[in-house]
Amino acid sequence: MILIIDDDVAVRTSLQLLLEQQGYATATADSSASALAVLQQQAPDLIILDLNFSIETSGDEGMLLLGQIRNLRPAIPVILITGWATIELAVKGMKLGANDFINKPWSNDHLLQSISTLLNLQEKRTEKLSRKKLDSLYNFQHIIGEDDAMLDILETIGRVAATDASVLIMGESGTGKELIAESVHQNSLRSNKPFVKVNLGGISTSLFDSEMFGHVRGAFTDARFDRTGRFEMANKGTIFLDEIGDLDPGSQVKLLRVLQDRTYEVLGSSRTKTVDVRVVCATNRPLEEMVSKGSFREDLLYRINLITIRLPALRERPGDIPLLVNFFLNNLREIYSRPALAISREAMKWLQQLPLPGNIRQLKNLVERSVLVSKKDYLEVGDLQSQLETSPRQKGNIDLPEVGSITLEELEIKMIRKAMEFHKGRITRVAKALGITRSALYRRLEKFNIPYDETAD
């Protein structure tokens, strides 16, 4: 049963008809007192709560009721109904324990998707599923791992994939966030529609609108042709927003709008377009910490993380290293026509003891380099050890990361950020320290969405 709490009879009736058409049993309450009376008698499966009652628009009454609901029925999922003007209030409600917030006027599809997802996650697991059982239920053929933490992640993916819930994937560089995003798509009802990958860290602020929403011919000086934006490419499918933690504040606002309303405008056109898309985001940055520092919008974080998946580092699941190594070797046998490729037991144990800060990406690079350099088909500890550079090494005040643990672009971003911090954003000094011109530095700051003050010098 779903409990609808709203003082507006038209809203209660509309929601009740919508839900009952979908087969849900409902109950309604028009005040805090009547809602609490229902909750004293029975436990609904889910609650839809309006934040404002009668002429009161501050949301205080709704927020007080949310606190009472959490004390009385802490396990019941709650969806807040709010207007755009009270998004800040809705975020406050999420902090108090609400599970999602929906805008007025709401989209029926969006609301039903949220309800389906939250009810699905409430279902109790009767048994822990083995990897074999998970593979029989879902398509996880590209994900290697049998660690308990990974099995829990795969089960979560399987349960939420059929919904349209937004998913946030967090984890260190090289842990396989893109593979997890692809699995969400492959196991969804959108699997036969586009899966569009966007590296937000590689889109400059000035090109964000054109890249994401498209442009029409003549929208700006170099716009010689119409361009289709990434959201339009992903329509009816899934859009994967990688490195969302690198997005600058201005672009965060634009992204929030399309995620909130599912509408956008093509650059150079005044016509509003609607998009139907599943959103999956990923980052290796601490978004909660960034929110507290003001560098990432709190309302955007709550919009993208209805489901959060935290991928463990490879050092936290060493039992999966042999599975990964054997998978890499199987591929290398075919690629390099070396059917006898194998690895010693001692070498495998040695790999399991490594910290591997670059995680799966680093392990793959290490194994492949060792295969290419070694003249033997049987890899031993020495063959691998010779390809592993000591980490970290010092060169002046610069930490050189281990080979394979970071990409060249990531290293460049790291160096620019360090130089900007050391020289307090003074562009001339930063450019000189990095050995590039001011204009070259400006291009990189734009490309990597690194904030700067044009007056600082």
TrEMBL record:
Any GO BP annotation: phosphorelay signal transduction system
4-aspartylphosphate modified-residue sites: D50
Domain Sigma-54 factor interaction: 143-372
Residues annotated as domain Response regulatory: 1-119
InterPro entries: AAA+_ATPase, AAA_lid_NorR, CheY-like_superfamily, Homeodomain-like_sf, HTH_Fis, P-loop_NTPase, Sig_transdc_resp-reg_receiver, Sigma_54_int
Top-rank taxon: Bacteria
UniProt entry keywords in alphabetical sequence: ATP-binding, Nucleotide-binding, Phosphoprotein, Transcription, Transcription regulation
GO MF annotations, alphabetized: ATP binding; sequence-specific DNA binding
Species assigned in the record: Paraflavitalea soli
Protein name, entry field: Sigma-54-dependent Fis family transcriptional regulator
